[in-house]
Amino acid sequence: MQLPSGELVALFTIGEAFDAANTRAYVARSSDEGRTWSEPRTVAEDGKQGYCYPAALERADGSLTIFCSRTPYTIYPC
């Protein structure tokens, strides 16, 4: 997603397999139109369950609330 500042935000998951217990949700940012990206930062992890399908909601104050699904399938704020 692109923020009003022009910054790009990418949300994604990395894990061993689809819906695996070691799946984690990450965020990376780019301030140069996607030419370079920050190191991915974990947004959800507890070592017990997988976290996947991250999505973001931009709030009126410009902050982001990130939601993800946790296996077994519960959606909650990260």
Structure description:
The structure is a single chain. The protein is an all-beta fold and 78 residues long. Helices cover 0% and strands 47% of the residues. The chain contains no helices and six strands. The strands form two sheets. A three-stranded antiparallel β-sheet has the order 1-2-3, with no helix packed on it. A three-stranded antiparallel β-sheet has the order 4-5-6, with no helix packed on it. Strand 4 and strand 5 form a beta hairpin. The model has no long low-confidence stretch (mean pLDDT 83).
Secondary-structure map with pairings?
Blueprint: E1 8-14, E2 24-30, E3 41-44, E4 51-58, E5 64-70, E6 74-77
What keyword list fits this structure?
78 residues, mainly beta, three-stranded antiparallel beta sheet, 6 strands, 0% helix, globular
